[in-house]
Write a structure and sequence with these properties.
512 residues; alpha+beta; Glutaredoxin; 8-stranded mixed sheet; 3-stranded mixed sheet; 26 strands; elongated
């Protein structure tokens, strides 16, 4: 519903300056709408939300064309209070000579009805804020203000640009070379780790230890080689023997000539000599033949072949396809188990009000309709993800935020910069123009989500979906009631945080 807001009192400055270039601290303001609801910029930022201010005049034709594009409305629908609740948008009518009738399109100085079809708040007579506090010079002027109060200006930006500003540019950590979170700097926070970073205050699970060679996060390869002094490729600098020793045949011929003649000796490994000496008496004779005959017609139990990524995983009655992407092995479909890894049942909660009060694990089917499970999997709140009983099978886990970032970086490096989402999306199931190419077999199918009030979003009645969000195992330490996710909606692999009561999809990642 459209809200018309009258300016309450003069703005309270968060930082006094003559102009507001990118990187400036936004000026605070307070306003009250006709329903007596008070809006305060700083309070919204303190809730961890990004704010978009669109300063406009009702007579401005270019601004009207931009308004009619519904870019701000689409952002508000997706990320505003009725969506992920990460964003607020304000329309700031900044020409003092215009009237309320102009906003409704019935006045003498207007190009249309700015109120109709606009769900985000409008502030009338905002010229004081625009010209005095935000250095206004032209219409429309659009500022994006990050939760830390830092703003950026853009000229009629498209949807992708604003989305990137909201979820990628609101970063506090670039000075440290760390991954950016609105509430802190992501990195290794374990002081005993070899890659500890004292600037990090959000642990991303990336902490490493030195290997036996003293290499941080190493695999012992730098000090592994042949350590046998009798080998012709002996390396005295090596600490660990990797089985690569090679032995000159002549060096062993005198001691093992019988073994060589019998064809049982191996110049690659002298320990293979006399493999036919079953009685271990140093001589291959009749006793060894009798020992072999005693085993005749015995069935030997064969070890099962080693599992490889791309094979099927059976778990709690379900069968999941897997896919190798870079050096990570992923489930190629969403989890739909009704049990924790220890066999304990995960409660199914269909009632909206009960779902909204949960602080323990729970699951549901999208729309409480089990027909959705075969294509969309199930939705789980974050308390299920974080449960000590485990949600994924043995040798698998719910990936942390850094592991999703690693997936994004790999796909980006394969020629899909700016199109990671498209490369990971399924071809079918999305609205027209939103589908992907599924280049890597990840098959990101639109599954919708359930918000903290128990309401389902993101899948239309016709079956087409516009969202799929995947929980990470990383909690948001700045906002303890929220946790990080990665999601597919546009051409990006978005990343932000949600209330832990939200119901999202889950993918499992193979342990390294």
């Amino acid at each position: 519903m459209k809200r018309l807001i009258s300016l309450m009192i003069g703005a309270l400055s968060l930082g006094v300056m003559a102009q507001l270039p990118d990187g400036s601290v936004a000026t605070d303001w307070t306003a009250i709408d006709i329903d007596s609801t008070e809006w305060n910029l700083q309070s919204i930022l303190d809730d961890g939300k990004t704010v978009i201010l669109c300063f406009e005049a009702t007579w401005n034709a270019p601004g009207w064309n931009y308004h009619q594009s519904n870019i701000l409305q689409d952002l508000y629908d997706l990320f505003g209070p009725a969506g992920t609740d990460d964003l607020m948008v304000f329309f700031m009518e900044a020409d003092e000579s215009t009237t309320l009738n102009d906003l409704y399109g019935t006045g003498a100085s207007t190009v249309g009805n700015w109120v109709e079809g606009t769900a985000y708040p409008i502030i009338d007579n905002a010229d004081g804020i625009f010209f005095n506090d935000y250095a206004g010079a032209y219409y429309p002027t659009i500022y994006t203000i990050c939760p830390d109060g830092i703003l950026s200006e853009s000229i009629q930006p498209d949807f992708a640009t604003l989305e990137s500003m909201i979820f990628s540019d609101c970063v506090p950590c670039s000075d440290y070379g760390l991954s950016a979170f609105p509430t802190g700097c992501e990195g290794c926070t374990d002081a005993t780790a070899c890659n500890y970073n004292e600037e990090a205050n959000v642990d991303d699970g990336s902490c490493l230890v030195n290997d036996d060679c003293g290499v941080c996060g190493g695999d012992n390869s730098t000090c592994s080689g042949c350590t046998n002094e009798n080998a012709d490729n002996y390396d005295l600098t090596m600490i660990l023997d990797d089985g690569s020793c090679h032995y000159d045949q002549l060096a062993y011929e005198d001691n093992y000539s019988i073994g060589y003649i019998a064809g049982l000796a191996s110049v690659e490994n002298p320990n293979d000599l006399c493999q036919g000496d079953l009685t271990a008496d140093g001589y291959i004779g009749v006793d060894d033949i009798l020992a072999m005959l005693s085993l005749f017609d015995t069935f030997c139990e064969l070890s099962p072949p080693l599992w490889q990524c791309g094979g099927e995983v059976s778990y709690e009655g379900g069968h999941y396809e897997t896919v190798q992407i870079g050096d990570q092995c992923w489930f190629a479909e969403n989890l739909y188990t009704t049990f924790y890894a220890d066999g304990t049942s995960i409660p199914e909660v269909t009632n909206d009000s009960i779902w909204a009060e949960l602080v323990t694990g729970a699951r549901c089917d999208y729309g409480n309709n089990s027909d959705n499970v075969s294509t969309r999997g199930r939705l789980y709140n974050w308390y299920t993800v974080n449960d000590a009983r485990g949600l994924c099978p043995t040798d698998w886990h719910v990936p942390n935020y850094a592991e999703y970032t690693k997936l994004k970086d790999y796909v980006d490096s394969q020629g899909y910069s700016g199109l990671v989402g498209a490369a990971l999306k399924s071809v079918n199931g999305w609205p027209n123009g939103w589908g992907g190419i599924d280049e890597f077999g990840f098959s990101g199918f639109p599954c919708g989500y359930r918000n903290s009030s128990g309401v389902f979003f993101g899948v239309n009645e016709g079956g087409a979906g516009s969202f799929v969000n995947f929980w990470s195992s990383t909690s948001n330490y700045g906002f303890p009631d929220r946790a990080w996710y990665r999601g597919l909606s546009t051409h990006y692999l978005d990343g932000y945080y949600y209330d832990k009561r939200f119901g999202h999809s889950v993918r499992c990642l193979r342990d390294e």
